[in-house]
Design goal:
By secondary structure, this protein is mainly alpha-helical. It has one domain. Helix content is 71%, strand content 0%.
Length: 107
């Protein structure tokens, strides 16, 4: 079994120019790692904010689309009641004016 007694800390390296340089490089690397970690956290927060805004915009677009579909359905019903399919062109044109970027079709 291993010896679980506390071991004394390792003896510090003697101060010579090579050890000082390595110590300085390690210190610089720690500082750079801290800076990079901070930047990463900031970027992740910004990305999360962007995703939240995008999701909110998509929900608004979906609500507008749903409302437009309901209105198009009402217009279609009115067109059918007023003489069959002869006024369906009006329904499609009105719907496409409200939502020009959709591929939805009204039948």
């Amino acid at each position: 079994m291993g010896d679980f007694r506390l071991q004394p800390p390792p003896m510090p390296l003697p101060l010579n120019p090579a050890n000082v340089q390595v110590h300085q490089q390690l210190h610089q690397l720690r500082e750079e790692n801290g800076r990079l970690l901070s930047q990463l956290l900031d970027l992740q927060q910004g990305y999360q904010d962007l995703l939240r805004r995008n999701l909110s915009e998509q929900r608004l677009h979906l609500r507008a689309l749903e409302q437009g579909m309901r209105q198009a359905g009402q217009l279609r019903g009115m067109a059918l009641r007023s003489g069959g399919r002869k006024n369906i062109f009006f329904t499609v044109v009105v719907f496409s004016l409200h939502f020009p970027y959709t591929n939805a079709r009204v039948y």
